[in-house]
Amino acid sequence: MPSRRRTLLKVIILGDSGVGKTSLMNQYVNKKFSNQYKATIGADFLTKEVQFEDRLFTLQIWDTAGQERFQSLGVAFYRGADCCVLVYDVNVMKSFDNLNNWREEFLIQASPSDPENFPFVVIGNKIDVDGGSSRVVSEKKARAWCASKGNIPYFETSAKEGINVEEAFQLIAKNALKSGEEEEMYLPDTIDVANGSQQRSTGCEC
Amino acid sequence: MGSDSESPTSSDDSTSQNPNPNPHPNSTSIDQSLDAIEDQLTSIALAQPNDLASDDPASSSEEEEVFKDAPNGSVLEEENQKERNEGEIVEEEVGVVAAEEEVREEGRLGWRRVNSEVEVDRLSSPSSSGYAGERGSSGGASTASGIEEIGEDRGFDGNGRGEFFDGASDSQAPPWVPGKRHVDEDDASVSWRKRKKHFFILSHSGKPIYSRYGDEHKLAGFSATLQAIISFVENGGDRVKLVRAGKHQVVFLVKGPIYLVCISCTEEPYESLRGQLELIYGQMILILTKSVNRCFEKNPKFDMTPLLGGTDVVFSSLVHSFSWNPATFLHAYTCLPLAYATRQAAGAILHDVADSGVLFAILMCKHKVVSLVGAQKASLHPDDMLLLSNFVTSSESFRTSESFSPICLPRYNPMAFLYAYVHYLDVDTYLMLLTTSSDAFYHLKDCRIRIEMVLLKSNVLSEVQRSMLDGGMRVEDLPVDPSPRSEFSSPHLGQSRIATDSPDRFREAFAGIGGPAGLWHFIYRSIFLDQYVSSEFASPINSSQQQKRLYRAYQKLYASMHDKVIGPHKTQFRRDENYVLLCWVTPDFELYAAFDPLADKALAISTCNRVCQWVKDVENEIFLLGASPFSW
Ligand SMILES: Nc1nc2c(ncn2[C@@H]2O[C@H](COP(=O)(O)OP(=O)(O)OP(=O)(O)O)[C@@H](O)[C@H]2O)c(=O)[nH]1
Ligand SMILES: [Mg+2]
């Protein structure tokens, strides 16, 4: 079979319970929204194929549970993520305050090789609620926080109305792709029978 | 916020639009959720319908017995669905939750997924790779039941290459076709869920590397689920080895950053399935070496799939061999029967080249060894031979021209590449020269030319072809009285078969079928030589399906004989509706024999003695003697 090179990107969605992580994912993948709240248990996994600059790749989306009792699952879930999406509810101050915890928790658990430049995306969700009148976190405040954390890209969305969701995920995919680009070199050994020792085939470490 | 702090299995939080972002669940809710998960264990892969339509009649009464106790594995789909809907978990979106329990490191855990729009969503959202609507990839069994199970290789069995037929299906099945099949499937496909035996390789970050069926990328959600389960248990300082869910076993093998999983309802023992995962891992190491681990150490995101590009055939051929090649569970290799002098001649010329800087020189015909030689102290593990010959015979490109390829022998040195010069001398016979030097191609080519000349001159190649046509030991040729060994002084096994109805054929009770005393088949494994010999299949074990079933029965015997907890046994005699199986283990050899289910026990035992004597009488022809014993 022709090995058309495809890239798989692992995207983790984090944030307090009820901020709309699952709803965002469903809106993005299935173009659906439900008013019913169904707490995610553990994590939900969805895949979506995305085209980007003539390349086809697969987003493996890990929608995690925001409820506290699942937070011990962290390490298991975060390892090897290509991008991390932090979601809060613009109508709930606590969910915004917790962004910092989510971010730090992720960096500790996933321990990415270059934490400074690890691609995060922040989403302020539920901007539709009460026509915006119950909003407690201003866009300015949110952007300021994002700027202070190394210019994290910021989106304001409504999973319910489908506002900005596609755009947010497009950037998520793009940034995930960028971060995956420095590929690891794969350097097997060869055997040197004469010396009875092992050598790197490249010899670059001599 | 309703029931967040109550049991997660409670259904009435559906009205709650604004859940408390900081719930403080009490401990019972977790317990209850684990209970609920246990209840759902059956949904782990695919709940089984009654086995009615199964195409594998291997479900003997004996085996059915075993599975009677299994939890509602055969509950029909509608019932399952109803239970769930009444039950409470309807509100939960998905779940991956793991729980450890049980002694011996065996965790049991489950995931479940409840949804109400299963079939409806199938057509929507082509971009969502099959996970349409509200379904997660971690799907349970819901859509799976009530439809007949699909064979492992249905429609592709039989065999183009080995001499046995593999068969999930009947003997008219078209020949086994190498390569990946059913690429269009994913875990939302009913057909995918019905496959009897799945194999997966994934990375410790949950990225898919290989799946026997279906497209790896479409299965990304499923492999994420598997990773979550494995890592969750690992986090608790434990390891998950096996999950039973009704008729299904989910077997896990963790090799550093590489996770391997088998989901099977073939009723093979856990040890056998784990052994198969070990071989799959070994095959991957053979292609890449263990150096890939370093890539994961530096970068957990590392995506291995590009490195394995084009090797689907190698893995699918290995998986196929689990059902026709006993080397996969015996950890021994088999030789092509040849006159002693012929094999000696082949060995002599291989020896010559081994002295000139070739690490291993191996001459094989299909999966059978003609001769093999290792330089000084180097010795080759039977599993490495199996993986190497699978790699060579499954890759079409080796057939068309001489090749030079890096390969790694996992048991010899898993970290490093060797270089293999491979050349087919005729359609089935190939020479492999292994070296440590990456620039030895021309030297090895010269070696091959010399070897080929000698083999032609000494008629080794024509003898090889003749032996292929003649076949090996046949149960109906089992001599009556083992003492007069003169009968087997003939240069080739096949010649003793000429007078089939001569008086020394012993066929009193079961004339016409199989050998004496109802003997249908045997495998003899020499422990010292690391080699086995298997009799040719004959009536009534004719179809590929029957052969596969017999191998599975042997494999079960093998596992039970080597069970460290119960064993080691010396002998085992089993009778079920399919066979009498007799196994005899000594420090020197192991014998596995299958008889007619009505065979007389005492007669069967004495027949086994005669088989052993027979094997010893012809060992010069069926085994490679004097090869250096495998020291590790
Ligand atoms: N009005 C409005 N409601 C939303 C929006 N997004 C989500 N919701 C609602 O908010 C509730 C919670 O949404 P979920 O997507 O389940 O929240 P979650 O973050 O996945 O929660 P956990 O799984 O518990 O971590 C649901 O009732 C949704 O219908 C939105 O953009 N606007
Ligand atoms: Mg959720």
Automatic annotation (TrEMBL), chain A:
Name this polypeptide is given:
Uncharacterized protein
Q: Which organism is it from?
A: Vaccinium darrowii
UniProtKB/TrEMBL annotation, chain B:
Q: Which domain of life is it from?
A: Eukaryota
Q: What is this protein called?
A: Uncharacterized protein
